[in-house]
Write a structure and sequence with these properties.
This protein has about 750 residues and is of the alpha+beta class. It is about 30% helix and about 20% strand. α9 packs antiparallel against α10. It is elongated, with a radius of gyration of 39 Å. About 45% of the residues are buried.
């Protein structure tokens, strides 16, 4: 006993390290293989547990190879004696008489086929039985037995030769794989099917002779031919498989991928990308909205194609998103009560600002609603909107839900809403999920091994539903032109095109799925005539056609209310004096904010101007020539930028000035001259001493009354050309005073109180 213990210490078993000696297999949601990766020695070996293997295979294996496996101590003396007799009779080794334990010993410690080698094998078998249980020894055999070529283990053999898991083996397949390790080269079913069939039938006959299988089962099994798949590597979702195999140190990596769907989408994407040239590629993500699980991942439509950089995974690649961020700003602005769905914007050239983008088609629409601006992807209204909301704030909101933008500039600026920052297809798919998921953003999940991350709120359920409704109210893009939506399965979608026609995007959402599509070139070279709706849009529509119809839209929150609003003011009918154009708006809890002033970023429009007219209402009067018959009227005022773009029915004529109302200062007070402000200068700082208020007297000597005085967006007065303002501790900080006279002239004064 002492000698045995000493030998055991001096010559320990060469047991394989846990997991490190296995290849990795990435599988779809049903366990079908997507892609396998060999171990560091190039061996294909997939880990499998005893309980995961077909019981019929275990019956065949133990009956044929080692009937008394669970009874002997690692060596079967009867088998060894029979092998010795055959050796003496034949003059050469006929059979080794090896038990499964002895075969495992030889796998772990190879030795020559000699008497010394057999002795070593016996000793190692006894050592195995000392250290391991029978099930542990059998598991080593199941994982390391040779099955031909560089395949080892029952699972690798089953996946390669039969394209199925070892848990799904039929009787004929179980018998074939039970005998294959006996002579892996001679019995290989892909090379020697008839020899393999004869060996298989021999196993089946022994199972019948020992009463393990019935004659009927044997007959059925023998009737099946030996069929083997060609030795090839399964490469479904290859880029996702590579990504997950590097992330997770597991031998079996499960995914949520639907393999048949993945193959259909890969084919669609490849054909569609080819329409745009051999160097053009595409990427597609399909996300199941309920758990944010990725069920299809096409990182490259032309995987392995050198002409289109097919090895580059475009799903996580940082690219310019074009206009695809506009729906998110739209929804955030709804929550901030900056807009409702029908808020007025003026799509017109920006003249008095450093940033002067154009629309994609270089034309201008004039007055448009927020919803129309979103569907038409107009740039000017959304630059105005992000100036009101705040570029940094917008970027912070996206970072909060773990989808940060990537900036080249030092800090965010309004260009980010037109593609002036980087993001990825994966981030866009995650963000658009909020439109269907009550405003919550959940990180995408690629595998059940990924930790579950709690969702974060980006927008309210009301803003999410209004955004969905607006984006779903447009036809779907197809190769043959726009196609009407299915009312039972509406898809909210948005396209985008990066600067220079380098990237085309289309992202769509219905009640069950999010589909995100990118099309372009990995090296960012431009593509002539590339536009999101025409290039990526049709592929998005084709992909949705591969999915089960949702047949329902997201439920409308009870707090989304329809209100009749008026242009140009923007507020509800009952809140405004003039209703030049009446529209039905979707609002959050009925709140209808004023129209944003396109002439003054961040300010709301004061959409009416009071004036005095004569008794007949035909001539305008000034303050110095009023009489007891004068009437006070109010007219609707549109933003100055709308001049020349308003339809005739939107224009309210202003009565001409009465000839009896001329003033010596009239020429000096021409509507074309600038307002002169007395009493305060822009940029001035007022310091309060001992907390005592400062009385500020401001006068506009050349203003034509009435004059609107607006402090920080609040109307203080709309009468005379002078204002008395008390600066107290309540006004500490930065302020903006906006002055507008009856001719529409305006002056902005910035000052601070310390």
């Amino acid at each position: 006993m002492v000698t045995a213990l000493l030998a055991d210490q001096l010559f320990p078993l060469a047991l394989p390290e846990q997991r490190s000696s296995y290849s990795r297999l990435v599988v779809d949601r049903n366990g079908l293989p997507l892609r396998a990766f060999p171990d560091e020695n190039g061996i294909w070996r997939h880990e499998v547990e005893l309980a995961q293997v077909s019981p019929r295979y275990l019956e065949a294996l133990l009956t044929y190879e080692d009937q008394y496996f669970y009874l002997h101590p690692g060596v079967n003396p009867i088998s060894l004696l029979r092998a010795a007799q055959q050796w003496i009779a034949a003059g050469e080794i006929v059979s080794g008489g090896s038990t499964i334990t002895m075969q495992v010993a030889r796998l772990l410690h190879p030795h020559p086929r000699s008497l010394l080698g057999k002795t070593q094998q016996i000793l190692r078998a006894l050592q195995l039985e000392w250290h391991l249980s029978k099930d542990e020894i059998l598991s080593l055999y199941l994982n390391y037995a040779p099955f031909g070529g560089n395949f080892e283990g029952i699972e690798a053999a089953s996946q390669q030769y039969l394209r199925k898991s070892s848990s799904e083996l039929r009787d004929s397949e179980a018998a074939l794989l039970a005998v294959l390790p006996q002579s892996p080269t001679r019995f290989r079913p892909d090379r020697h099917p008839e020899v393999a069939r004869a060996a298989r039938d021999k196993v089946i006959d022994r199972l019948v002779n020992f009463g393990v299988w019935s004659a009927t089962e044997a007959t059925t099994a023998k009737q099946e031919g030996v069929i083997s798949w060609p030795l090839s590597r399964q490469t479904v979702a290859p880029l996702l498989s590579l990504r997950l195999s590097q992330r997770h140190p597991h031998t079996i990596v499960p995914t949520f991928i639907d393999a048949p769907l993945q193959q259909r989408v890969q084919s669609l994407a490849s054909r569609h990308a080819n329409r745009w040239g051999r160097e053009t590629n595409a990427a597609v993500l399909i996300v199941s909205n309920h758990q944010s699980e990725v069920i299809s991942y096409v990182g490259s439509a032309k995987y392995a194609d050198p002409n289109s950089a097919g090895f580059v995974d475009m799903v996580p690649a940082i690219r310019s998103p074009g206009s695809t961020l506009k729906p998110l700003l739209f929804a955030l602005a709804l929550d901030e009560t900056l807009i409702h769905s029908e808020s007025l914007f003026v799509d017109a050239p920006r003249l008095n600002t450093d940033y002067q983008p154009e629309n994609f088609n270089t034309g201008y629409m004039g007055p448009v609603s927020a919803a129309s601006a979103l569907r038409l992807s107009l740039n000017i209204p959304f630059v105005q909107l992000i100036e009101a909301y705040g570029s940094q704030r917008f970027a912070d909101q996206l970072a909060h839900v773990q989808t940060p933008l990537v900036f080249n500039a030092a800090s965010p600026n309004p260009s980010i809403i037109l593609g002036g920052a980087g993001t990825s297809l994966a981030s866009l798919a995650s963000l658009y999920g909020a439109i269907n998921n009550n405003g919550l953003v959940t990180p995408l999940r690629y595998s059940a091994l990924d930790p579950a991350v709690a969702p974060r709120r980006l927008i309210s359920p009301e803003a999410a539903w209004i955004s969905y409704s607006v984006l779903a109210a447009q036809p779907l893009p197809t190769l043959n032109g726009p196609r009407q939506q299915d009312p039972l399965n509406p898809i909210a979608w948005k396209s985008g095109t990066s600067w220079g026609n380098r990237d085309a995007w289309a992202i769509g959402v219905n009640a069950d799925y999010t589909v995100a599509v990118w099309l372009g070139r990995a090296d960012s070279s431009p593509i002539a005539n590339l536009m999101g709706a025409q290039a990526a849009g049709p592929l998005m529509t084709q992909v949705f056609a591969q999915l089960a119809s949702a047949e329902h839209a997201p439920d409308r929150p009870a707090t989304v209310l329809s209100r009749d609003i008026c242009w140009p003011d923007g507020r509800a009918v009952e809140q405004t004096e003039h209703c030049v154009s009446r529209r039905e708006a979707l609002t959050i809890e009925g709140v209808t904010p004023r129209t944003l002033n396109s002439d003054l970023p961040g300010e709301f429009l004061i959409a009416n101007r009071p004036l005095w007219v004569n008794a007949a209402g035909t001539r305008r009067l000034l303050a110095h020539c009023l009489n007891h018959r004068a009437q006070r009227l109010s007219i609707p005022i549109w933003p100055d930028s709308a001049a020349g773009l308003l339809p005739p029915e939107f224009i309210t004529p202003i009565p001409a000035l009465s000839q009896h109302c001329a003033s010596p200062l009239q020429a000096h007070n021409s509507p074309h001259s600038a307002l002169r402000v007395e009493g305060v200068q822009s940029g001035e700082t007022f310091r309060l001493l001992n907390g005592e208020a400062i009385k500020l007297a401001i006068n506009i000597p050349n203003a034509i009354t009435p004059v609107d005085w607006i402090l920080d967006g609040a109307l203080l007065s709309n009468d005379s050309a002078s204002l008395s303002l008390s600066l107290s501790n309540q006004l500490l900080g930065e302020h903006r005073l906006l002055i507008i006279d009856s001719q529409g002239r305006h002056q902005s004064i910035n000052f601070s109180v310390r």
